[in-house]
Amino acid sequence: MNEAGVLIAAGGTGGHISPGLALYEEFRNAGVRALFLAGRRDARFSSLNDIARDDLNLYHAPHFSKNPARLLTFPFAFAGAVLFARGLMKKYNVAAVIGMGGYASAPALFAARMMKVPLYLCEQNSVPGRVTKFFEKHARKIYGTFAAAALYLNQKDKYLHAGNPIRKKVMVDARKEAARKAFNLGHASRVILVIGGSQGALSINELVFRLKKAYPEELKSVGIIWSTGELSYHNYKERIHNEIEGGSVYLSPFIDQVGLAYRAADVAISRSGAGVMMELAAMGLPSIQIPFPYAADNHQEKNADEFARAGAAVKVGSAEAAPEKVMPLLLDLLNNPRALKRMAERALSLAKVDASKVIVEDILGEIG
Fold first, then answer.
1. Tens-digit pLDDT profile for residues 231-241
2. Same domain? 202 vs 303
3. Distance between CA atoms of 286 and 334, rounded to whole angstroms?
């Protein structure tokens, strides 16, 4: 591989890290050295283990806080992170820096600006985040998931609606029956996938538990593949064992074979982070979207609106996400193959499965 390569800066959530990994893999496939820079707190993401040891770097990327004590130390911590990124870029003769959004990418982007290294931005959401807004005037290109994001930018001419990079390991080609057997759900008549994002979602976990408890007969033949997140796993494992009779549930803190889970499911109940949503679209999986109400700039609400308008999902507000509201929606979908097929087609129409290739080829075309 060429020693001069690119630096991908990502962290904070799986929604930033996963598309960064997709680009990392695409650059490597193109024979280009790719370094990956994430925050130290991101070491908890097992997906980082897929990066070659020599390519992965962790640094202390401070999170901006209004807490007076942290506010005082922020400039020093940020400066330290910038120096670390500069050292990395000099050592490996980095030719371009790609920021995936989130606080962990900011020091690396700042270092790129100081060193006059070309910088590029990837914006996952329909409303651009703070990092994108701050660095847009310094970026050569801004690659986005939603066309609507350009409306919020001053540098609209730099925006390319490329889609959200998706890892090849997600794009599994498997028959539904075989995929279900991987989760011990080969006997299920229908399967629901519950996925609350990289860290789970407490309110969605509680909703699904209450659905199982309140509607045992309706869900008797329905399997559930349920990603709880690390913090909630043991709690719900115990409660399901003690309080719920019958039914098939595959419970896990994190679904390693997420591509198979998408293939196994008929419908998903999901938070509205762009990463998960675009994976659902790429796999043609209809969904009930329950946006996180406290997401920055209300971006999850707007992401969900995009899918609902397209007919790819049904949106349910967090305040309305009660079993008696969600169960009729679920039954309407599960018992209506035509509606599911129509939603699946509309989800696929939103997908840009070649986003990684488009972005990597565009960057390499500019930097040579």
1. 899 999 999 98
2. yes
3. 10
Contact predicate 164/124, CB 8 Å: yes
Q: Give the residue-averaged pLDDT of 303-318.
A: 96
Q: How far is CA 278 from CA 41, 125, 248, 249, 300, in A?
A: 25, 10, 27, 25, 13
Instruction: Give me the CATH number covering residue 260.
Output: 3.40.50.2000
With contact defined as beta carbons under 8 Å apart, do 212 and 240 qualify? yes
Residue of 306, 303, 311 lying closest to 286 (CA atoms):
311
Statement to judge: residues 110 and 192 lie in one domain:
no
Q: Based on the fold, state whether residues 147 and 200 are members of the same structural domain.
A: no
269 strand-pairing partners: 194, 288
Q: How far apart are CA 30 and CA 325, in angstroms?
A: 48
Residues 262 and 137 in one domain: no
Looking at the fold, whether 248 and 313 belong to one and the same domain comes out as yes
| pLDDT: which is higher, 200 or 93 | 93
Q: Are residues 17 and 121 in the same domain?
A: yes
Length reported for the chain: 368
Taking the C-alpha atoms of residue 268 and residue 201, their distance in angstroms, rounded to an integer, is 14
> Residue 87: its pLDDT value, please?
97
Give the model's pLDDT for residue 1: 42
Question: What average pLDDT score do residues 309-332 get?
Answer: 95
pLDDT surpassing 60 at residue 116: yes
Do 33 and 45 reside in the same domain of the chain? yes
CA proximity to 55, closest of 28, 87, 15 = 28
Whether the model clears a pTM of 0.85, i.e. scores above it, the answer is yes
Rg (CA), the chain: 21
If you search the block for the tokens 């893999």, which residue do you land on?
25
Q: pLDDT (tens digit, 9 = 90+) per residue, 49-79? A: 999 999 999 999 887 666 776 777 888 999 9
Query: What's the per-residue H, E or C state across 279-310?
Result: HHHHCCCCEEECCCCCCHHHHHHHHHHHHHHH
What is the count of structural domains for the chain? 2
- pLDDT of the residue at 94: 98
Rounded CA-CA distance 344/280 in Å is 9
Structural domain span for residue 134: 2-167+353-367
Residue whose structure tokens are 């930097």: 367
